[in-house]
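Suppose you are handed a protein chain with no further information: no name, no annotation, nothing but its sequence. What can you learn? This example shows the usual starting point.
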Amino acid sequence: MSPRRARAASEGGPAGDRRALARAITAVETGADGADELLRAAFPRTGHVPIVGIAGPLGVGKSSLINLLVGHLRDMGRTVGVIAVDPSSPFSGGSVLGDRIRFDRPAADAGFFFRSMASRGAPGGIAGTTRDVARLLEAAGFSVILVETVGSGQVDVAIRDVATTRVVVLVPHLGDEVQTLKAGLFEIADVFCVNKSDLPGADVAERDLAEVASMGPAPDGWRPRIVRTSTLAPSGVPELWRAIEAHERFSADSPGRLADRRRRLEEEIVGRVRDLVAEEAATRLRTEPRLRRLVDRVVAHELDPRTAAERLLAEGRR
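A reasonable first move is to predict its three-dimensional structure. Written in structure tokens, the prediction is:
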């Protein structure tokens, strides 16, 4: 794919060809020829819009909440791209709940774009290409990107390195869930959302979250906001967006903003190097007879796996 075509495909947003954008996303997800050119063309036009991660356990109503948030943003004149990461089948690798979100947006609404993607076994609550797809949506001209993670547990915090603001959604009657999640998911929250707040126990949930939010240091000076919402009433969605905007403004003015962005990009670079090295090593182990004999020695317990890995790495440095 030529650079010109790559740029055109990555601009298929509010003012462009949405089918071209969909094809570009598919190319990136599948690693098709030309995907790298698409991402290279898109990257200079990224890093300027809110990428809002919506995380939380299964059953807290993230999808319904996002539906209302999209409606609120569209009423404000904002263009919105949504990425919903679904759990994958352990057998087929496909998305288990890919059609679970029913957005009540007109089909002709060019200011809204939805993409469901399978996690494909990636850890951390998002897919391996979620960051890249978010960049394509931003390059295509969407002014807000929303990313719904897989129903998250304590360690599903990879959204931290993709989103500029992280919203952790919970419900009344948290019980021991606060204690279970406190050491992981809670630590990445910029905004806590008590959804289904029309149910009994919302006051207690808000109080518990306020206690969690006050614990520990706030190195950047931001204390998580707590917002109550209901998708049944509905209520609280404008307040939720104001809390998100407050964090975005705070981050924009924060002295540590550049350092945080640098940290995230450094980690991304190291991760991509790791993936490239692993892919090359796997290919060589399958195709080069001398290295296949190295594996044979491990199978025969003549050599331990760590030493074999060190020798394989040394071979790649020559």
